[in-house]
Amino acid sequence: MNTTHFSWLATLIIPLYICYAKVSTLPDDRLSSQTELLGAATRKPVMGILEASVIEALTRGSKFGVLTTGVAWVAPLTKAILELSIVSKEAFAGVVATGLGVLDFHTSSGELGKDDAVENNVRIGAQTLVAKGCNVIVLGCAGMEGMEDAVKAGIYTSKEVRVVDGVRAGVEIIAKKLHDS
After folding, report:
1. SS (H, E, C) 14-68
2. Helical (H) or strand (E) element with 116
3. For residue 11, what pLDDT is reported?
4. Are 138 and 67 in contact (CB under 8 A)?
5. Which residues pair with 14 in a beta bridge?
6. β-pairing, 12-14 with 162-165?
7. Neighbours of 143 (CB within 10 A)
8. H helices then E strands: how many in the chain?
9. What is the per-residue pLDDT for 43?
10. Per-residue model confidence (pLDDT) at position 97
11. In principle, which of 42, 46, 57, 153 could form an S-S bond with 136, CB 3.0–4.6 Å?
12. What pLDDT does residue 35 have?
């Protein structure tokens, strides 16, 4: 891999919610995540927003769930999260899909979350995760960035439920790593 175009970067954030598919790395045939491979190739700290959001969720509450876009993402996201060594089955309530596509979160004018149907699906997903015992809800797609208010609008409980944006969590974790180094 030619990584010279990454040389000016201090760090990399992978802005895709799922980039944890394991791939074979020859010659030892060890399975590595794509973020591990990119980190090794660039010799830069690499943080995926899935990993960042899970780390943030675990620091904010005792049980988290992921609210994502389409139903097709439920199984791969569940698998990827459970493969992270930091996640226990007790702390993870699962993944709930809104049934929406990533582009549904943005109107034709580019405004975020102005569609009543989109906000309704997000609220219903949030209610489902709270019913599963979540006190942290993770936005499971970079395209859902900015949907925190719609998620909070769907929470009808007296207990505090926090919302984690994976993009924001990734930036904050990487900034802390850079500051500490």
Report:
1. ECCCCCCCEEEECCCCEEEEHHHHHHHHHCCCEEEHHHHHHHHHHHHCCCEEEEE
2. helix 116-131
3. 55
4. yes
5. 48
6. unpaired
7. 20
8. 6, 8
9. 67
10. 95
11. 57
12. 61
Residue type, 46: V
Any bridge partners for residue 106, and if so which? 112
pLDDT average per 10 residues of sequence, the chain (181 residues):
48 58 45 60 72 91 94 90 86 94 67 69 92 94 83 80 90 78 67
Residue 33 exposure: Cα atoms within 13 Å on the Cβ side: 17
Q: Are 53 and 166 in contact (CB under 8 A)?
A: yes
The helix or strand, by DSSP H or E, that contains position 93, with its residue range, turns out to be strand 92-97
Rg of the chain taking only CA atoms, in angstroms? 17
- Confidence at residue 15, expressed as pLDDT on a 0 to 100 scale: 59
CB 50 within 8 A of CB 138: no
Tokens, residue 108? 């034709």
pLDDT at 16: 60
Residue with tokens 């030619």: 2
First and final C-alpha spacing in the chain: 26
Q: All domains of the chain, ordered by start, with CATH?
A: 4-48 (no CATH), 49-169 (3.40.50.1860)
Report yes or no: 96 and 125 within 8 Å, Cβ to Cβ. yes
